[in-house]
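Handout, tutorial session.
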Amino acid sequence: MAKQKSQFVSQLEAFFSADRLVSITDTSDMVTLEISPEHWLDVARDLRDQDEFSFTQLSDLCGMDYLSWGQSEWATDTASNRGFSRAVSGEGAGRFDWSQRPQVVFDRDNEYGHPGRFAVVVHLISMEHNRRIRIRCFAADDVMPIIPSLVDTWNSANWYEREAFDLFGIAFEGHPDLRRILTDYGFVGHPFRKDFPLIGNVTVRYDESQGRVVYEPVEIEPRVLVPRVIRDDSRQHALADEATEDGNS
């Protein structure tokens, strides 16, 4: 039987026209609104100012990179007969040398239904109605992701947006002071992007002879870490029984 639509979802659908919302998803934990960049600010202000919503508090904002979303590094359907360790691909996101990184073009028509690579996810709280909601916005451009800033709507978004800019490279249009907040001065790249190398780009250390911090090439070789998997199946029991029989004979 189809799940009955909640009263809150009906309120959202009645207030927001179809052209302002991309989708509404009602899952077990929270209602999620997906909003296009051109309506990101006006929908956010309505969620804050309208009495039936009153989402006056922004509790969290983060960036998302959907590159390689749903793609597994494990090919067990073709590698199980050659050893489980051979099922790991070394070309997964983040597992390659930056100078030799694969040039991946994000497929906006991918089977997972995401309209872009980079998105911003925000969690809001309505103290008046004791309710939470999640809103999400995909950047229109994957090369230079830009999303309007929510600082004028909720000032608590200030440092969150700086963090998303620093780690994911998402630019927030209208932000009063969009600077890096976690990485060092002169840091190259955005470390939470899926195509950022796991070993990093440079090694940082303090040189006593020079009396300053120096940057050097990374000495760690990129490698694929293969977890140890212990299988408990009939083949192992058969081998154990054979070894017991041979020992008793």
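The second record follows below. Compare its token runs with those of the first.
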Amino acid sequence: MNESVNSGSARRYQSLADNLTRTFSKQGCTVKYALGEVSVEIPADQLIDVATRLRDDADFRFEELIDLCGVDYSDYGRSEWTTGEASFTGFGRGVEGSEDSAPENDRRYAVVYHLLSVSLNLRLRLRVFADSAQPIINSVTSVWRSADWYEREAFDLFGILFYGHQDLRRILTDYGFVGHPFRKDFPLEGHVEMRYDNEKGRVVYEPVSIVPRTLVPKVIRTDNRYLDEVNQQQDPADA
């Protein structure tokens, strides 16, 4: 029973991917079907037109936007553990960075949308990249009203601007917050800290007082490999 259900779902999503490719490939969209999920990458200038058709066309009918989030792809694909060749023993196992893992800096910021078709019981993921120097993407609040708070959250945490949003202001951090905390270049300890001052009767902001520290645990070994030579040698009087 499960195999027939899974195969039926796979056929439906493969059909969706094929239909999306036929419909939107001329607008520069790229469709990918993998792991039972369909994703569409949309050029920023085509977002509103494609989104409107995905909502209204009878073949798609994605009536609901169930989630929207920002993504910072800086250092995406880069790993200090990416290696070429290394020995299996000794200090030769040290890791060197791989040049092939360098990120695409001109595609740093993106907005990801998750859509639901209640009528057809289908889900779809959209992705739109923004300019890295000044990330601005058209607001989809005119297509899906639920995007209102989601876009404010992406603006607050990633600094992505949404052109046409009616009330684009911070939603999670304080009004006086400096920076965007989900950007990968944002320091873990932040820039400022806040506290309530009884004398002034208000909240005050001060430079952060948290001291950066190493979070790697210290391991103390007591076996004979790490003892001084004097302690390693047996006292002749005790022999």
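Points raised in discussion: The chain is about 20% helix and 25% strand.
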